[in-house]
Design brief:
By secondary structure, the protein is an alpha+beta fold. The chain has helices at residues 6-12, 25-36, 52-61, 81-89, 93-99; strands at 16-20, 42-45, 70-73, 76-79. The longest helix has 12 residues, at 25-36. It is found in: Cytoplasm.
Length: 105
């Protein structure tokens, strides 16, 4: 069997996917934000996965800087904490979560 990629994990998971590290305070903040909406994300802690370093290199190569948190909603790469917080401030994050059925009213 081949190596699992970021795309594989996003495709096989829930509509909200977060790549994180247990030592990253911004990752924790983003997870708390989504839990506050009632979301149940698939979370991949890169520092706990056997292929975590390979996944992290893939995230960086795709433009995620820093590599975590990296958020995907409905299979679409949203970005990191700055992008997620920007969507929240603009009032667009909840709409996006509803649109992709991450949460329900």
């Amino acid at each position: 069997m081949g190596t699992t990629t970021v795309a594989d994990l996003v495709a096989q998971s829930r509509p909200l996917v977060i790549f994180s590290k247990t030592s990253c305070c911004m990752s924790e903040t983003i997870k708390i934000l989504f839990y506050g909406f009632g979301a149940n994300p698939a979370i991949y802690e890169l520092d706990e996965l056997q292929n975590g370093q390979q996944l992290e290199r893939e995230l960086v190569a795709s433009g995620c800087r820093p590599s975590v948190p990296a958020v995907f909603i409905g299979g679409i790469p949203v970005g990191g904490s700055n992008e997620v917080m920007s969507l929240q401030v603009k009032g667009e994050l909840k709409k996006m979560l509803l649109k992709h059925e991450v949460i329900r009213l």
